[in-house]
Amino acid sequence: MKYIMAVIQPDRVDEVLRILEEKEIHLVTVTNVLGRGRQKGISEVYRGHKEGGRLLKKVKLEIAVNEAFVKPTLDAIKEGARTGHVGDGKIFVFDLKECFRIRTGEIGEVAIG
Fold this sequence. Notes:
The chain is α+β, with helices and mostly antiparallel strands. It has helices spanning 13-22, 70-81, 109-112, and strands at residues 2-8, 29-35, 44-46, 49-51, 56-65, 89-95.
């Protein structure tokens, strides 16, 4: 089992979710977040002074999947989120030690769905 976290541009969320749906990956948590990467936010000139380091609006996707769905999930995110410009985002993959479905008490891969 893997836990996939991706931070992407807000305007790419619908496309990523559409592609995930096509690949039958339905269980996704989406959170609006603020952050910055190598571009270090937006630089602006305010009253003659350059100000940088602002945080940009991003979206964080969190997806728990069984091994068979890892590659399709990664492919969907990369395809849907890529614009080719700085700030397209990052994907992180973590080993998921355990998963519990609270309602039924199921444990492990069956609990993910």
